[in-house]
Design brief:
Oligomer: single chain
Number of domains: 3
Radius of gyration: 25 Å
Shape: elongated
Strand order of the largest sheet: 2-1-3-4
CATH topology of the largest domain: Rossmann fold
CATH architecture of the largest domain: 3-Layer(aba) Sandwich
Distance between the termini: 86 Å
Order of helices and strands: HHHHHEHEHEHEHEHEHEHEEHE
Helix content: 40-55%
């Protein structure tokens, strides 16, 4: 069959390549999947047919005879937030390093039905495993209990919870080391696992220093929620025994809080020190530049991909404290 004949019939398929190369469709699949024990001349004929027909490898072809699509499913929530957005990018890179691709389905992470629908959509595409990004506690538990027939993990599963707690403890410990004894916190939504882990790490660090838990406000991860809290935080800071430092559970809430505090007439860090979490690429350009904690997100992604593929993966690096201008010794007793 000529190239024009194939084009006239529409999309070129595996059978077209097999017919042009004079081999079986199974042989074409083996060449596509780079399997061994194929004679060089046979491989060359198949590759030549692929080139001449303009055949594009797709997951259905890859799955023929291998029962794998080389695709991993990712269930994500709000990609407008820094964490989910960079998590997807990190997973895509990690999957590509492992010779895989990702397919992403977005869901309302607070809705078990929405997450299950996203999982069903990905499973319908024949994905080889599922990675849940920024999960809610209830929806992740529902997926793990569903027996979906493929491996499932979360981006920050296993020791990832420990690293999240350690990171939050680093931020609070830094504030303690500067001399702060009244430290408040802005935590994330309580039904997010990452928020719970970071909250637990901050509380543990305060207890280890012999300090009171301090005031605790809740945001929704966004800069807007940090700004919305600023008036209340400012009033508390101005009170006689108000906090001299605030540890925010992510950089975006810290950014909004800093902006709101400045609008309220407070200086950061002169009146109150602010620390964040995530070390997003813009953190160094906040005014003042934000003290924060960085996670090895690339390492977390590689661990998650290795977990669903059932192979050994290196542990991510520990969290790192990044000290910048938003924290200083307390300016008042």
């Amino acid at each position: 069959m000529s190239e024009s004949d194939a084009a006239g019939r529409g999309r070129v398929g595996v059978r077209d390549v097999a017919r042009a190369a004079g081999v079986s469709t199974q042989t074409v699949s083996r060449v596509i999947n780079e399997q061994p024990n194929i004679r060089p001349e046979t491989r060359d004929r198949v590759l030549a047919a692929i080139a001449s027909l303009g055949y594009r490898v797709n997951n259905a072809a890859r799955s023929l005879g291998t029962r794998t699509t080389r695709t991993l499913g990712v269930i994500a929530s709000d990609a407008t937030l820094y964490g989910p957005a960079v998590g997807i990018a990190a997973l895509e890179t990690a999957a590509r390093e492992a010779g895989r691709w990702i397919a992403t389905a977005y869901a309302d992470a607070s809705s078990e039905a929405s997450v299950r629908e996203a999982a069903d959509r990905l499973l319908g595409q024949g994905v080889d495993g599922l990675i849940v990004l920024a999960p809610h506690a209830t929806t992740l538990a529902a997926l793990l209990d569903a027996r979906l027939g493929v491996a499932i993990t979360a981006l920050h599963a296993d020791a990832g919870a420990v690293r999240q707690e350690e990171g939050a403890a680093l931020a609070v410990g830094h504030l303690v080391s500067l001399g702060h004894r009244r430290i408040a916190r802005v935590v994330g939504p309580d039904d997010w696992l990452e928020a719970r882990w970071r909250d637990a790490g901050g509380a543990r660090a305060l207890a280890a220093a012999g300090l009171a838990p301090g005031v605790r406000w809740s945001g929704d991860w966004t800069a807007a929620s940090g700004a919305d809290l600023a008036a209340e935080v400012a009033a508390t800071v101005r009170s006689a025994d108000g906090p001299t430092a605030v540890a925010a559970a992510n950089d975006q809430m810290a950014l909004g809080l800093i902006a709101g505090l400045r609008a309220a007439g407070l200086d950061v860090p002169g009146d109150v020190s602010i620390a964040g979490f995530d070390d997003n690429p813009d953190a160094a350009f906040y005014r003042p530049a934000l003290t924060t904690v960085g996670l090895d997100l690339a390492g977390e992604a590689r661990r998650a991909v290795a977990a669903v593929l059932g192979v050994e993966g290196a542990d991510p690096r520990p969290p790192v404290l990044v000290v910048r201008a938003s924290t200083a010794a307390p300016g008042r007793p």
